[in-house]
Amino acid sequence: MDLISFLNYVTWVPLVLWVALFFWFRKVAYPLYLKKQMRKGRKWAFLPEFASKNHSYIGFLRLRCMFWTFVVIALSTLSVVWVLWKFTKFPPVFGAVSAVIFVILASVLYRKAVKKIGRLLQAAYFLEYRRACYESDSRGNLRNETDILNRTAWSFNRKLRNAEKHRRLAKYVNAMAACKKIPPDLYAETMNVF
Q: pTM value?
């Protein structure tokens, strides 16, 4: 009898594991997404040094993500099988079908978690782009879009490497992404005030 009451409580553990898996994807597995974006040629994608210097880290991280995702899916499926066996008249085998739903849920959860990191880096990159445009305009240089993009990428990577060296990368990217600074000339142009 104690085993059955214990299993009634353990049935709800997979809900906590789904939340933990989301934060695993967001805090640990984000280099997989950034590496993929770098291969696509996205200039805003910044791979931290611990992942870029150690080439086997990405492969090992991919294996760990698949392992933890499989564990959460398996425990969730077992939980559904237990609930079907305990509270309904359906055969517990029907609970195994829920594994397909959990695989889809895991892929959606992964996309949601890593897209947040991508949006933060894009917003930070756009702030640096606006700074480069403002510096170019304030010096009176002719605007060459290629030069501005190269300058932005160089400056962005340099600032993020420095922040990473001082162990403030996440804090710095969040601050850059939340910054709504607009250079004065750009503000004057948009408001038609000269």
A: 0.76
